[in-house]
Amino acid sequence: IGKKIKVVVTAKSNTGYTGSASSIETSDVIQALTPVTVAQLNVSVPSDCDYDNNFHSATVTVKDQYAGYVGAITVYYNGKIEAPKNAGTYVVTVDIAAPVLKAGDTAYTDKYYGPVSGLEVGTFTISKIDYTVTYAPEIKTYDGTVTASAKVTETGAISGTVVSLAPGYYF
Fold first, then answer.
1. Structure pTM?
2. Distance in angstroms (rounded) separating the CA atoms of residues 1 and 46
3. What are 138-170's pLDDT values in tens digits?
4. Most exposed residue of 21, 79, 148, 159, measured as fewest CB within 10 angstroms of its CB?
5. Is residue 79 helix, strand or coil?
6. At 53, which helix (H) or strand (E)?
7. From the CB of residue 90, how many other CB atoms can be counted at a distance below 10 Å?
């Protein structure tokens, strides 16, 4: 680590090529980074809940002793970046980028942790809720028109949820 290596590649003479058949490359040997694990992270995944029309997001940060030695974290829910709000079971994964060297460090050391992709950190479920709409037509004496009124009752409605009737259902 921290040393230079010299690699010489020479083609065999019986390859049929003419001209130069050697290549010389010099490169620095760098520290292989240990991949980040869940043990280096603070993870807070939402608890299982009923649908409430709100987004439910996980929080994933690096534990204090690893701060600065782990790259940027991106959280995914079933492979999508937007936190979910609809009913379903969600697998929370993270991608963690390669770390940026701290000021004064000239190479990666064993303090640094390498990038990972698709590291599973938890799951949670947003359950469906019961939502019921009932209606009762009001009694109407025929008056020559084809309109009537109905009393509509809904239970289990969540504020902000829009419900529409399928075509062919009119009140």
1. 0.68
2. 42
3. 888 888 887 778 787 777 777 776 766 666 555
4. 159
5. coil
6. none
7. 22
